[in-house]
Amino acid sequence: MILLVVGYLGFPINGWDGMDISLQERKICRNTVQGRYLLSDDNGHVCDALSVDQWSRCCPGTGEKFSCHGCNLVSQCCNTYEFCVSCCLNPAQTQKELALQVKIAKPVTAGTYASVFDFCAGRCRHNSESVVHENAYVSEFHHCFSLPSNSSGESTFYTLLVTWICRQGETCNSVCRSKGQSCVPSKLAVLNKCEIMKKYLACKGSCLASIGSDQPAEVAEDAPKHLNPGACLFTRTQGMLSCDGSHRHTRRLCPCA
């Protein structure tokens, strides 16, 4: 008679040993968890929430890695949180040594991110440069992963972008293209301030609140009097800011990169 030695769970001992080794080698992923339809894991994959492996919590490795679908690589902002995280995880987009120096909050006592995944997941979700007055988005690209210039979280606006003044009636898209660059819509709100406009424009007729997709801008001096010739205009309706906006009596201030 032949006896088969069985482990305590009913598996042959040799078979159980092999299974144990294979399980230990499987990677346990971290992922963005809260997505209703999509998830991004720390491998840089994005997948449907239903297709995540229940044991490893990893996305299938068959899809595109470090996908930047729906992202503007100039502004480093995306219209979907999960693709923002995936794109941010690409070493070509985010330098690990710099990401791990970024403070999670502005106070000096704030901690730093423990990993690039933590940086990307946090930065894409909470980035002050993508919102205005803390309750409205600057553009449709809500999720931004751009690295600040230092660990205090200061904006990289002045080091990454060039500001150009349009010809009268010209759009920001047009003037940026003429310089071999692209307009960065998420940075229009940075220029949409009187103190910034006065650094670049004469603002002879003062600085006035207005409404228009062509702002921030300066009214041409030959414009009709009711349009306040020479005045600089900013808008309180941040959602109207657009790289495509123009007005025949204004010259726009544009962020290009």
What is the domain total for the residues? 2
Q: Give the averaged pLDDT, no decimals.
A: 80
Give the proportion of residues in helices: 10-25%
- Given the C-alpha coordinates, what overall shape results? elongated
Order of helices and strands: HEEEEHHHEEEHEHHHEEEE
The main pleated sheet reads as: 5 strands, mixed
Strand neighbour order, sheet with most strands: 8-12-10-11-9
Could you tell me how far the N terminus lies from the C terminus, measured between alpha carbons in angstroms? Answer: 81 Å
Compute the number of helices.
8
Summing up helix and strand content along with how strands pair, one would put the structural category as: alpha+beta
The count of β-strands is: 12
Describe the structure.
This protein has 257 residues and is an alpha+beta fold. It folds into 2 domains: 38-144, no CATH class; 162-256, no CATH class. The chain contains 8 helices and 12 strands. The strands form 4 sheets. A 5-stranded mixed sheet has the order 8-12-10-11-9, with helices on both faces. It is elongated, with a radius of gyration of 25 Å. 33% of the residues are buried. This is SREBP regulating gene protein. It comes from Macleaya cordata (Five-seeded plume-poppy). Belongs to the SPRING family.
